[in-house]
Structures are given as structure tokens and as C-alpha cells.
Amino acid sequence: MTRFLYHMARRAEWEQAEAEGIYRGSADDRRDGFMHFSTAEQVAESASRHRAGQSDLLLIVVAEDGAGPWRWEAARSGDLFPHLYADLPVKAAVGIHDLPLGDDGRHVFPPLV
């Protein structure tokens, strides 16, 4: 069974990636040396912690077996998060969704698999 992993990208950065065919991640990703991803169970919490109030975000969906290399590494909470240690080919994205802010200021997610 395919597992899907999720990355939140700023719209302008993703649009640049579409033009180039490759997504290099955010400034934070580049600083950390890997691209931050989450599972379906983790992504809403990640948005609250790291992207609170940010508008104009996209949710990028990638099949785990469609990109790599991945490392599952512990965060401060001890939970394991998928980190991509490479640039992401735009064609590896199997879904791209707007992440609008709801009336409560939290991101509104599409149904996740």
C-alpha cells in the first residue's frame, strides 16, 4: 500500500519550482539540510506549530515510493517525521492543494489519505 507524505510550500516557491521542474524547499528546509514532510496524522499539527497564520500555502502530496532518499527522524516530541534529503522533482507531486485559513485562523486541510 502506498503511503503519502505531505509538505507545505509557499505558493510563489512552488510556482518557481514548476517553472524549473525542481523544488528545492523553503529557506528553512535549505538551512536544515533536508525537506520537512509529515504524515497525514502529523501535518495539521505541523501547520499549527510551524506555519500558523501563514496564508498562500499549498499542500504538496508525494507518494513515499515516488521520491527519496527519506530518513525518518525524531522531532522534539520524539515522533518520527519523514525528511527528504534531496530536491523534489515537481513531477513527483501526486497532488497539490490550497491550504486556506479558516475563520479560526487554522489551515483548512483537504481529506488526506
Task: Describe the protein.
The structure is a single chain. The protein contains three helices and eight strands, in the order E-H-E-H-E-H-E-E-E-E-E. A hairpin with a 5-residue loop joins strand 5 (70-74) and strand 6. The chain has helices at residues 11-20, 27-32, 43-50; strands spanning 4-10, 22-23, 35-36, 57-63, 70-74, 80-84, 88-89, 93-99. 24% of the residues are buried. The strands form three sheets. The chain has a three-stranded antiparallel sheet with strand order 1-4-8. Strands 3-6-5 form a three-stranded antiparallel sheet. A two-stranded antiparallel sheet has the order 2-7. It is 21% helix and 33% strand. The termini are close together. The chain has a single domain, classed as Alpha-Beta Barrel (ADP-ribosylation fold).
Short description:
This protein is α+β, with helices and mostly antiparallel strands. It has helices at residues 11-20, 27-32, 43-50, and strands spanning 4-10, 22-23, 35-36, 57-63, 70-74, 80-84, 88-89, 93-99.
Relative strand content: 25-35%
Overall helicity = 10-25%
Would you report the number of β strands? 8
**Domain unit count:** 1
> Can you identify the CATH superfamily?
Protein of unknown function DUF952
| CATH architecture label | Alpha-Beta Barrel
Spans of at least 5 consecutive residues with low confidence = none
The whole-number mean of residue pLDDT values reads 93
Global structural class: alpha+beta
Distance between the termini: 11 Å
Main sheet makeup? 3 strands, antiparallel
- The helix/strand series, from N terminus to C terminus, equals EHEHEHEEEEE
Using the coordinates above, name the CATH class: Alpha Beta
